[in-house]
Amino acid sequence: MAFSGESASIESRIGELLDGNKKYQGTHQIPRKFEEIKIMPNRPPAIAIVTCADPRVIPEQYFDIKPGTGYLVMRNAGGHAPEALRSIALLDLEFDICAVLIVHHTDCGMTHMQESKARKSLKERVGDDKEKLAAIDALDLGAIPNADFEASLKKDVEIVKKSKWFKDEMLVKGMLYDLDKGEVREIVG
Predict the structure, then answer these.
(1) Measured in whole angstroms, how far is the alpha carbon of residue 174 from the centre of its chain?
(2) What is the C-alpha separation between 158 and 108, in angstroms, rounded?
(3) How many CB atoms lie within 10 A of CB 184?
(4) Helix 85-95 vs helix 149-162: angle between axes, to the nearest 10 degrees?
(5) Backbone φ, ψ for residue 70 (5° rounding)
(6) Strand 183-188 vs strand 97-105: parallel, antiparallel, or unpaired?
(7) H or E stretch covering 48
(8) pLDDT tens figures, 110-153
(9) How far apart are CA 161 and CA 169, in angstroms?
(10) Integer Cα distance of 187 and 150 in angstroms
(11) Tens digits of per-residue pLDDT, 177-186?
């Protein structure tokens, strides 16, 4: 499948990323090694942040997070909990996560998505493969109908709270990041 702008443009964009990395290398500071972090005395409590993969949504900016400060960021389409559960569980084993913040945002693509149309498009890609078609039918695409962030966040918070993988005392909150204001508000706590 070709993207608009052809492959030369795609290669150019990848080249821009690599050029950006060259600039970054000039200021890069070697982080602590994984084993050093695990045994650090007075290590800050770890907090997992689950948020959207939308390139406008950068939790390191809107929460003013500095590297190495105990915040573990996971991103996926819509910032939904189900896709992040495995990562949270594995990171909890290493970093003893005390809280999970699920952060949705205004003007999210998942509020504009029509599940039936998306399913149809996905099915057109796979043709007559019955196994793939069944997998598409079973897939929770994570749409947020009518921009009902409260309902979506309640659902995601409950998924984490009901998971058997985590400690009962793990704090789980649902938050909404307003793209226009730059403000994060607690919606479910």
Answers:
(1) 13
(2) 21
(3) 16
(4) 50
(5) 90, 15
(6) unpaired
(7) strand 46-52
(8) 888 887 888 888 899 988 888 988 888 887 777 777 888 999 99
(9) 9
(10) 6
(11) 999 999 999 9
